[in-house]
Structures are given as structure tokens and as C-alpha cells.
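DM from R.C. (forwarded with permission)

"hey, sorry to bug you on a friday — could you get me a structure for this? deadline for the figure draft is monday and I only need the backbone to look sensible"
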Amino acid sequence: MKRIVLFIATNLAVVLLLSIVASVLGVDRILTQNGLNLENLLWFSAIMGFGGAFISLLISKQVALWTTGAHVITSPEGAHERWLVDTVHRLADKANIGRPAVAIYEGEPNAFATGAFKNSALVAVSTGLLESMSREEVEAVLGHEVTHISNGDMVTLTLIQGVLNTFVFFLSRVVGFIVDRAVFRTERGVGPGFYVTVLVSQLVFGILASLIVAYFSRRREFRADAGSARLLGTPQPMIGALMRLGGTQPGALPQSLATAGVAGSPGWGALFASHPPIEQRIAALQGRS
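My reply, with the result:
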């Protein structure tokens, strides 16, 4: 979950920063001084939109390390760290990708993988996860994260985010131009109303775009779960790990895990969730048994 939340948050921040810089440099004024040039605006939006998404991707590893305080294991200390690094490397070899850097951070049970390139990614696990799960379950979680890397999920989401950013830039300026003309009666160029409306519209459209990114993220979680099952040769360890994350002990599947803290949120919260409800993920894995 952390990799998607960090990516979306970083992307929103980068896009807003690029938008402010463009406004300060007068790009918006040039695009609208003789009326709204939609073709030039679309090209500008594409450059800014994909630029923001790829900047977010390129700095994703550094942002993840900084925000989580994760410590990269360069020289494993003790059998536990050696096992963790060896397991990630073995799974990466099996998935035919470069061996990722491995990190540990303090926190509740969780793990993430990030990075711009398959052969130089990062896999990080929390101390809470290492302490609460068996080695077999930890290995399943690591297989899940390695599958995210081998599937190129961060790049795919970056491309989706780039397309959405393009429309966010484009539509926010169209709305800003219309409001500036119709409400603030600006006859030439753009006035303060344009910049205020663009800023508000960009925030609103950016949040809506995050809904779409979260949807695709949820779909790819099922693939990562299935990838873990393939790498380990059985879905049972991943099912056990998900049950622990859902607050239950491995055993018979309960009627519902919906009340578990990480099992998804009802209503609008579920639309923003980067992961599907745990009971759905378990059911999908049980179908592979």
C-alpha cells in the first residue's frame, strides 16, 4: 500500500509545483493571450503531465526511504538479515529480474516495492511484519512485492498517471479560462480568477484522477498475489499472510474479514483504497488451490 500512496502523493505535489512554475513563467498567459489555443494547450498538458508522473517515478525510491526511514541492508548483520536478503534475491532470480535492494523500517506489518527500473528496484519490509509472521508467510509477502517489480507495475501506473495528469492540466485550464471570461469578465489574456480557478480545479481533478489510479492498483494486487503463489509453488503461504494482515490466524476462512483494519473501507473510502478487501484476495487465491 505504501508504494501507491507515496507515488500518488508525490505525483500530486510535483504536478502542483510544475503548474505553479508554469504560471510564474507566464506559460498560461502565452497560451491564452489571444484566446485559448487548445492544440498548444494539449501539447503543454501532455509534457507537464507525463513529466510530473515520470519525475515522481524517478524519485520514488528516495522518497520511500526518506518517508519511512527505511534502512537499506548493505552488509547483512546476523542470520535474520542474511535470510531476508537471500530470500529476496532468490525470488528475484526466479522472476528473472535484477536483484533489488532490501530494506527494513520500523512500523506496523507492511511491505512495499518501488523504483523506476526492474533491475534496480527496492523491496522494504517493516519490523512489525517480520515479527508477526512466520518465515514462510514473510517469503510469500516478498514474492508478492517481487512480482510487482517483475510485472512493471510502477511503470504501468506511471503511464496511467501521465495520461490522467494530462487531462487534469488540460481541463483545469479550460475551466479556468471559461470562468475567467464568464464570471470575472476578463476580455484579454487572463486575470486572477483564471489562476484561482485553475488551482482549485487541478486539486479536484487530481483527486478524481487518484480514484482511477487506485482502481488499477487494486486490480494489480490480485496479479501480485497470484505471482507470489507461482514463485512459491503454492498459494497457502500468501493466504496465511493475508489472514494475519486481516487480524485472523490461519485456518478456516471466516465468513467475512470486512471489519479488519486493512480489509478495505466501506462507501467512498473503498474507491480510494489502493488494495482490494482482504477477503476478496483470499478468495481469489483459494480459487487457485
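R.C.: lifesaver. The chain has a mean pLDDT of 84.
me: no worries. The two ends are 25 Å apart (CA to CA).
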